[in-house]
Amino acid sequence: MQYLDGNRLTLLCNGEQYFPALIAAIDAASTELFLETYLYADDETGSLVTDALARAAARGVAVHLLIDGFGARDFAPRFRRVLREAGAQVLVFRPDVNPWRLRRNRLRRMHRKLACVDGRLAFVGGINVIDDFDAPQDTTPRHDYAVRVEGPLAAEVRAVAAQLCSRVAWTTGHGRVLPAAPPAPAPVAQGQRAALVIRDSLRHRRDIEDAYLELIDSAREEIVIASAYFFPGRRFRRALVSAAKRGVRVVLLLQGLVEYVLPHYASRALFGSLLEAGIRIEEYRHSFLHAKVAVFDCCRASVGSSNIDPFSLLLAREANVFVDDAGFCAELRASLEDAIRSGARTLPPLAWRRRPLWRRAWNWIAYGIGRLMIGFASYERYH
Q1: How many CB atoms lie within 10 A of CB 130?
Q2: Residue 379 has what pLDDT?
Q3: Measuring CA to CA, which residue among 327, 328, 322 is closest to residue 303?
């Protein structure tokens, strides 16, 4: 990880904080704007973001929107029309999602959620362009995070966004020469240290996982990880167990409500060994958990789009910001502790061991199916 000094970082919790900040930044854009998202819903949030992008394009800002061909396969035609009429560029990452073509690479999606405005202000996190309340129970917003970045790191976000935008544009026949990158923002006085870590299928295949493992291995007091979809490989599990055995307090805040049946039950086949090692597992039940964040010893943190599962760690394009700042880490840790206190349930190890045989059998059947799917979809072993 290449940490950069001199950044101003703002933690944003849920769409309630994220979308007003994003739309304000879009409305203040003067030259260029990049936005990447996996989901782009035809709802109130989608309309607000689309209108802001169209306003920016109409006043001459070079707007580049990149959506995923599977996650945003239902991208509203009216959004596409409004944006193109305003002069915005709308690109689709891997648009071929034919369900009858079982190609391995169809699961290699663009799962990043990031934005960059004028090369000086950026957003990175796990929040898609979708209403917070778009969930089955429709009563409480899904729990998620993003980080607003001002300073030199924004130039890094701009660089990776422009690179992928250009690659997709030329691949799909919509190529255009992007203008030179604006000058990197000057460091902020008394700023914070942070690094952008991406995952792709070329030079950065394991960068996010390796960054996590480095911080887990160096932790001495506490590790708190929140992951919406948790299905780690052996290397990741061994690192967590090793940390717990050397006396580190390890807390996992995981999805408690059933959103996707197979991943939900498959992941539970792994809980027994983690609980036996002394790892504390909290199931979030207040609403759907969509967070992908972590705090290590309250001095290092991660906020991004990558879950701890093979989709994120082996297949998808992801982006996380790793932060080296005690104040930011304390704020994120306090938010996670509040989520645990108000909306989670602790899994008791003894009760977990005494589950009925049929429940354990179903977990292992789901686990086996999940492993087969990973083997089919991935070109590499999931350690």
Answers
A1: 24
A2: 47
A3: 322
pLDDT tens readout for residues 342-368? 999 999 988 777 778 777 777 878 777
Q: Which residues of 313-350 are buried (b: 16+ CB within 10 A; e: fewer)?
A: bbbbbbbbbbbbbeebbebbbebbeebbeebbeebebe
Please state, in angstroms and as integers, the Cα–Cα distance from residue 121 to each residue in 19, 28, 150, 156, 182, following that order.
Answer: 14, 10, 5, 11, 12
Alpha-carbon separation of residue 11 from 21, 178, 210, 307, 341 (angstroms): 11, 30, 24, 18, 20
Q: Residue 334 sits in which domain range?
A: 193-377
Average of per-residue pLDDT values in the chain: 90
Q: Are residues 232 and 145 located together in one domain of the fold?
A: no
In whole angstroms, what is the distance from residue 63 CA to residue 53 CA? 7
In angstroms, the CA 271 to CA 2 distance is 33
Is residue 26 within 8 A of residue 53, CB to CB? The reply is yes
- Check: CB of residue 294 under 8 Å from CB of residue 223: yes
Tell whether the model's pLDDT for residue 312 goes beyond 90: no
Q: What is the mean pLDDT of residues 105-123?
A: 91
pTM above 0.90, yes or no: yes
Same structural domain, 229 and 321: yes
Q: Assess if residue 382 is contained within a domain.
A: no
Task: Go through the chain and tell me how many residues it has.
Answer: 383
Residue 151 lies in a domain: yes
The neighbour count for residue 282, using CB atoms within 10 Å, is 22
Catalytic site positions:
111, 113, 118, 290, 292, 297
| CA quadruple 213, 148, 314, 64: dihedral, nearest 10 | -160
